[in-house]
Write a structure and sequence with these properties.
The complex is a heterodimer of chains A (724) and B (215).
Chain A: H1 3-6, H2 11-21, H3 27-36, H4 39-42, H5 47-50, E1 60-62, E2 69-73, E3 78-86, H6 88-93, H7 95-111, E4 116-126, H8 133-153, E5 156-164, E6 173-183, E7 198-203, H9 213-217, H10 238-253, E8 259-262, H11 267-279, E9 282-286, H12 299-304, E10 310-315, H13 320-329, E11 333-341, E12 345-350, E13 353-359, H14 360-364, H15 395-404, H16 412-415, E14 426-428, E15 436-439, E16 452-458, H17 461-466, H18 468-485, E17 489-498, H19 505-525, E18 529-535, E19 539-540, E20 543-544, E21 548-557, E22 574-579, H20 591-595, H21 609-625, E23 628-633, H22 638-650, E24 654-656, H23 663-667, E25 673-678, H24 680-684, E26 688-693, E27 697-700, E28 704-707, H25 708-723
Parallel strand pairs in A: 4-5, 9-12, 17-18, 24-27
Antiparallel strand pairs in A: 1-2, 2-3, 3-6, 4-6, 7-10, 7-11, 8-10, 9-11, 12-13, 14-15, 15-16, 16-21, 17-21, 19-20, 22-25, 22-26, 23-25, 24-26, 27-28
Helix pairs in contact in A: 7-8, 7-10, 8-10, 10-13, 15-25, 18-19, 18-21
Chain B: E1 2-7, H1 14-22, E2 26-31, E3 42-45, H2 65-75, E4 79-83, H3 85-92, E5 99-101, E6 109-117, E7 133-140, E8 144-146, H4 149-157, E9 161-165, E10 178-182, E11 188-191, H5 208-212
Parallel strand pairs in B: 1-2, 1-3, 3-4, 4-11
Antiparallel strand pairs in B: 5-8, 6-7, 6-9, 9-10, 10-11
Classes of the chains: A alpha+beta (724), B alpha/beta (215).
C-alpha cells in the first residue's frame, strides 16, 4: 500500500481505484491514475469553485475545457486563442528550464487548436532580491529561460509583470500566457473520433525527463529534498518546438487531421485520456512503437514521460502517409502508435502484450472532487517585511524611493532580453503603453483603419493577501484598465490561480474568496473567463505564498493608429485626473506601506465595480476619438508615481496641482482612477484638469519639483542596482 | 524586383521579411533544401536560429543545400542581403568579411537603434543616402561585429562599411560601431539590425524599406 503514496495518491483514492477497476491496478495503471488524479491534471480542489465563474459572452468561440480559450475578433472571421499557465515548482527547482518549458507548454496549447502563436506575456514573482542571492538567481535564470525559448521559437514576448515579495522567496511563480490567431473555420478540437482512425505521435523523442512532474512536483508542497527532484524538470528545445509548430500548422492547413492535442503534464497518459474522454471513444496504444531517446524504458515511463515538444493527433488511415511525409519534411519523428476504438477504454500494449486496461471515464470523469473547508485565518499569515524607508519622509524623497523600489523600477532590464517584434504585429511595445497592442493583420503600407488586439496580464498578490476578495476584484479591474488606456474593449479573460495548500482551511478561504472576487468582477465588466490554470500547494516550511490570482485579458480596438501611450506625448497637453465615484486611495497594502515595513494587512478601499467599469468605457471611448494622447491608470505608488512614469516614458516634464496634499492622495492606491493628457477641451468634459505637460521637471503643487533626469536615474537604475 | 527569402528550420523572421519585400516587389520563400532559385532577382537570408543554432551561430546553415546556390548566385553578382542570423551565416560562408561575437553584455538585447548610412559600395540601401539616420530595431545575442584592425582599415578604405550605430546606440560593442558591411563588389550586404521590422509606421518606423530597396 505504500507505492500509491509515493505517487501522491491517498489511501482512499487508492481504494476508489480498486473499486472502479474491480481489482488491484498494476504498476502501469497505478502510474496513469496517479497522474490523472493529481491536482495538476484533475483539479480536485478547485473544480467546484471554477464552475462558479462566468464563461459565456458574445465573442466566445471556445470556452474552458479545450487546450486554450478563444474569442472572435475583427469582423468575426478571425479568432484569438489564448491561455495562461503556471510553471512554478519546476522554476523553483530549475529556473532556466522551468521557465523555458513553461513558455513551450503554453505555446503548444495555443497551436494545438490550430492557432498560430503571435505573442507571449509572463507574470513572475520572486523573493526580495536585495537580500537574497537565491532570488537574484531565480530571477536572472527565469528571465533568461523565457527569452531563450520565446526568442528562439520566434514568438514575440510583448508584456508581463514582475513583483518581489518575501512570501515568494522559496516558491517563485512563473506564469506564461500565449496568444494565437486563426481563421474561425480552421479551429480544431482535441476530441478523438472515428473508430479505426490512427493515433500518430510526432515531434521530439520520448526520454526519461519529467517523470512524475505533474504529481510529485506540481501537486505537493515544496520541501528540502527538492534539489533531488531536478530530474523531474523537463529540458526545453525551442528549435524542436519551432519545427513542431510549423509542422502542426501545415498539417492543419492541409486538412490532414481529425483531432490534435499537445503533450504536457503527464505526457501521453493525459493527452490520450483527454482525447478519448472528449470523443467518447477508446484508444489502444502500443508504447513500444514510441520513438525513444534511450533504450530500456519501461512501459509506465513511456506513458508518463513529460519530454517536451511532442504532439498527438488522430488521422484517417488513408491520410497517414501524407501526415508522416509532412513530419519528415520538418525533420520530426512521426509514428503511428495506436488507434481509436469503440471500447471507451485506454488500453496500453507493450509490443503487443496488454499491460494496462483502464476505463477512460474512471481516469477523467471519476477523479475525486473535494469540497474545501474554508475558514479565515485566526491570526495574520504573513509577517511584516523589512523597513526600507523612514516614517516621515518628504514627498520628493518618497517618490524617488518608490521609483527605485524593486516593484516599481523600470523593467527594461528584463524586457530588453525578449524579442517583442517578431511577427510584425507589435504596435505598442513594453513601456510604450499600459497594454501591448498587436495588429490583427500584419501588413505595412495597408490603407485605412487597422484593427488590433490589446492584451495585459496583472495580479498584485500583496493586495490579495490583505483581502482575497477585493484583491482579486482589483486584479481584474487593473487588467481591464490597462486595456481601456489603449482604447480596447475586453473580450475574454484567462486566469492562473496561484495559491498554497488548499487542504488548509485558511488557504481554502483565500481561494474561495478570490474566486468569488474574480467572478463578481467578470460579471460586472461582462468579461467571460475562457480558460485558465490552477497552481496549488505553493508553500513550504516558511509558509504559503501570497494568494496570487493572475489575470490576462484580451481585447480589441478598431484602429491601431488611434491609441494612447503611457508617456506624455506633447508639450502643452492638459493633464486630467479622472476617477470613478467613491475612489478613495489609501496606503493600506500600498507600495509605500511596504517600503515602511508594514505587513500585508488591513482593509482595502472598496470599489464599486460597476462604476469603475463605466469609467473604463468612458476612457476607452475618449481614447478612440484621438483627443487623448496619453492614458495611464493609477496603480502601484499612486498618483505621484503614475505622473512620474508618464514623464519618464514620454520624456516630458509636467506641472500639476493636487487638491489634497496628504500621503494617501499622492501615493495611495485603490482601483478606479486614470491620468489622461491631450486636448484641454476634450478633457474638461469628464475630468478635473490638474496641470499641463511641459518643461523638464515634474512639479506637484508646492510638494515637490524633481528634474525628469533624476526620476529617470531612480527608475532605470533601480533593478540593475539591486542585481549588481 | 523578385525577392527570395530563405527559410531554414529555426528561421524566425522569414514571414516578416516576406511581408516587407512584398511592399517593394514580389516575394517567395526558398526552402533550405532547394537547389532551384526560381528566377529571383535578390535573396534575403533572414534572422532567427537556423537549425537551432546550438553550435556557433550560422555554422550549420552555412553548409545547407540552399547556401550552395546562394554562394553561386552571389559569385555571379546576384544581390544577397543577410539580416541578423543571415549576416552571421554569410560571414560563416565567407561571403562577407569579419565575424559576429557575443554581445558585450552576454545577453540577448532587443532595442530600437539609430543607424548612420555610410558612403559605400553596397548595391542595397537604394532608398537611403550617405549621412541619413535610420531608426531600425536590433535583437540578438551574438551581434558584436569583429575583424582584425588591418581588415577593418581595408573595409573602411574600400567603402565596405555600410552602416554604423549612431553615437550611444552601439548595443553590442561592435568594432568601430559597425552595424553592416558589404563584400568588395557591393552585391552582398549583411547587417545585424532588422530592416524588415521597420516597414510599417504603426510598428515604429518605415526606414527599413530604404535598406531593402536594391538595385
Amino acid at each position: 500500500m505504500s507505492r500509491h503514496r509515493e505517487l501522491g495518491l491517498t489511501d482512499r483514492e487508492y481504494e476508489l481505484i480498486v473499486e472502479l477497476l474491480g481489482r488491484e491496478p498494476n504498476g502501469v495503471e497505478l502510474a496513469v491514475f496517479s497522474l490523472m488524479w493529481s491536482e495538476h491534471c484533475g483539479y480536485k480542489h478547485s473544480r467546484k469553485l471554477l464552475r462558479t465563474l462566468p464563461t459565456e459572452g458574445r465573442a466566445v468561440v471556445m470556452g474552458p475545457g479545450e487546450n486554450a480559450g478563444a474569442v472572435a475578433v475583427g469582423d468575426g472571421s478571425q479568432v484569438c486563442a489564448f491561455k495562461v499557465e503556471s510553471h512554478n515548482h519546476p522554476s523553483a527547482v530549475e529556473p532556466f528550464q522551468g521557465a523555458a518549458t513553461g513558455v513551450g507548454g503554453i505555446l503548444r496549447d495555443v497551436f494545438a487548436i490550430g492557432a498560430r502563436p503571435i505573442a507571449v506575456l509572463d507574470s513572475l514573482r520572486f523573493g526580495e532580491i536585495a537580500g537574497s542571492a537565491r532570488s537574484r538567481y531565480l530571477l536572472e535564470h527565469a528571465v533568461a529561460g523565457i527569452g531563450h525559448y520565446g526568442n528562439s521559437i520566434g514568438v514575440a514576448t510583448v508584456g508581463g509583470e514582475i513583483y518581489f515579495e518575501p512570501a515568494y522567496e522559496q516558491n517563485c511563480l512563473v506564469n506564461a500566457m500565449a496568444l494565437g490567431m486563426i481563421s474561425r473555420d480552421k479551429l480544431i478540437r482535441s476530441a478523438a473520433a472515428g473508430v479505426g482512425n490512427v493515433l500518430v505521435l510526432f515531434g521530439a523523442r520520448t526520454g526519461r525527463d519529467g517523470i512524475g512532474g505533474a504529481s510529485v512536483l506540481a501537486s505537493a508542497e515544496l520541501g528540502e529534498a527538492d534539489a533531488d527532484k531536478r530530474p523531474t524538470v523537463q529540458i526545453g528545445d525551442p528549435f524542436a518546438e519551432n519545427k513542431l509548430m510549423h509542422c502542426s500548422l501545415e498539417l492543419l492547413d492541409r486538412g490532414l487531421l481529425v483531432a490534435l492535442q499537445d503533450l504536457g503534464a503527464a505526457g501521453i497518459t493525459s493527452s490520450a485520456s483527454e482525447m478519448a474522454s472528449k470523443g467518447e471513444v477508446g484508444l489502444d496504444i502500443d508504447v513500444r512503437k514510441v520513438p525513444l531517446r534511450e533504450a530500456g524504458m519501461a512501459a509506465f515511463e513511456i506513458m508518463i514521460s513529460e519530454s517536451q515538444e511532442r504532439m498527438l493527433c488522430v488521422v484517417e488511415p488513408s491520410k497517414v502517409d501524407d501526415v508522416l511525409a509532412v513530419c519528415a519534411r520538418w525533420e520530426l519523428d512521426g509514428t503511428a502508435i495506436g488507434e481509436v476504438t469503440d471500447s471507451r477504454r485506454l488500453r496500453v500494449f507493450d509490443d503487443g502484450e496488454l499491460v494496462g486496461d483502464l476505463p477512460v471515464t474512471a481516469l477523467v470523469d471519476e477523479c475525486p472532487v473535494y469540497d474545501l473547508d474554508p475558514a479565515p485565518p485566526a491570526e495574520p499569515l504573513y509577517p511584516a517585511g523589512e523597513r526600507l524607508l523612514g516614517e516621515r519622509t518628504g514627498a520628493a524623497e518618497t517618490l524617488l524611493a518608490l521609483l527605485a523600489s524593486a516593484n516599481i523600477a523600470s523593467r527594461r532590464w528584463a524586457f530588453e532580453q525578449y524579442d517583442c517584434l517578431v511577427g510584425s504585429r507589435t504596435t505598442r511595445r513594453p513601456e510604450q503603453a499600459d497594454a501591448a497592442v498587436l495588429l490583427i493583420e500584419p501588413k505595412g503600407g495597408a490603407e485605412g483603419a487597422r484593427a488590433a488586439i490589446a492584451v495585459s496580464i496583472d495580479g498584485n498578490g500583496r493586495r490579495v493577501a490583505c483581502d482575497p476578495y477585493r484583491g482579486a476584484v482589483e486584479a481584474v479591474l487593473e487588467c481591464a484598465a490597462n486595456l481601456a488606456c489603449v482604447g480596447a474593449a475586453p473580450l475574454g479573460l484567462t486566469n492562473c490561480l496561484n495559491f498554497g495548500n488548499p487542504e488548509k482551511p485558511h488557504i481554502a478561504w483565500q481561494l474561495t474568496e478570490a474566486v468569488r472576487g474574480l467572478g463578481d468582477a467578470c460579471r460586472a465588466l461582462d468579461v467571460p473567463v475562457v480558460g485558465g490554470n490552477v497552481s496549488l500547494y505553493n508553500e513550504g516550511a516558511e509558509g504559503p505564498i501570497y494568494p496570487t490570482p493572475v489575470v490576462g485579458i484580451v481585447g480589441e480596438l478598431p484602429d491601431a493608429a488611434v491609441t494612447a501611450t503611457s508617456g506624455f506625448a506633447r508639450d502643452g497637453d492638459a493633464i486630467a485626473l479622472v476617477a470613478a465615484e467613491g475612489w478613495a486611495p489609501s496606503l493600506t497594502g500600498s507600495e509605500l506601506a511596504k517600503l515602511r515595513g508594514a505587513a500585508p494587512a488591513g482593509e482595502l478601499p472598496q470599489a464599486d465595480i460597476g462604476q469603475v467599469g463605466a469609467l473604463h468605457a468612458r476612457v476607452r471611448d475618449a481614447v478612440r476619438t484621438g483627443a487623448i494622447r496619453t492614458a495611464h491608470d493609477v496603480a502601484e505608488g499612486g498618483v505621484a508615481v503614475a505622473l512620474a512614469e508618464m514623464c519618464l516614458l514620454g520624456d516630458h516634464g509636467a506641472q500639476v496641482d493636487l487638491l489634497r496634499h496628504d500621503e494617501a492622495a499622492l501615493f495611495g492606491e485603490g482601483p478606479g482612477a486614470f491620468l489622461l493628457a491631450g486636448d484641454e477641451a476634450a478633457l474638461r468634459d469628464f475630468g478635473t484638469v490638474i496641470g499641463t505637460v511641459g518643461g523638464d521637471l515634474l512639479a506637484i503643487s508646492d510638494l515637490l519639483a524633481i528634474p525628469v533626469e533624476d526620476l529617470r536615474d531612480a527608475h532605470e537604475q533601480g533593478l540593475p542596482s539591486l542585481l549588481a | 524586383m523578385r525577392y527570395g527569402v530563405v527559410r531554414f528550420p529555426g528561421t524566425c523572421d522569414d514571414t516578416d521579411a516576406l511581408l516587407a519585400a512584398e511592399q517593394l516587389g514580389e516575394a517567395a520563400l526558398l526552402w533550405h533544401t532547394d537547389h532551384d532559385l526560381r528566377g529571383i532577382d535578390a535573396i534575403i537570408v533572414p534572422g532567427g536560429f537556423s537549425y537551432g543554432d546550438y553550435l556557433r551561430v550560422g555554422a550549420i546553415a552555412r553548409f545547407s543545400p540552399i547556401m550552395q546556390e546562394v554562394e553561386r548566385f552571389a559569385a555571379r553578382g546576384g544581390l544577397v542581403l543577410g539580416i541578423c542570423n543571415g549576416f552571421q551565416i554569410l560571414c560563416e560562408a565567407g561571403l562577407l568579411p569579419g565575424a559576429l561575437l557575443p554581445n558585450v553584455s552576454l545577453r540577448f538585447v532587443c532595442r530600437q537603434v539609430e543607424l548612420e548610412v555610410q558612403r559605400s559600395q553596397a548595391k542595397w540601401l537604394r532608398g537611403a543616402r550617405p549621412g541619413d539616420r535610420l531608426s531600425v530595431p536590433a535583437k540578438h545575442t551574438t551581434g558584436r561585429y569583429w575583424a582584425p584592425d588591418p581588415v577593418l582599415d581595408e573595409l573602411e578604405a574600400a567603402g565596405q562599411v555600410v552602416l554604423r550605430y549612431a553615437a550611444g546606440h552601439n548595443l553590442n560593442g561592435s568594432a568601430r560601431d559597425i552595424a553592416g558591411v558589404c563584400n568588395h563588389a557591393g552585391n552582398v550586404v549583411g547587417l545585424m539590425p532588422h530592416p524588415e521590422h521597420a516597414v510599417d509606421v504603426l510598428t515604429g518606423s518605415t526606414d527599413g524599406l530604404k535598406v531593402l530597396a536594391a538595385a
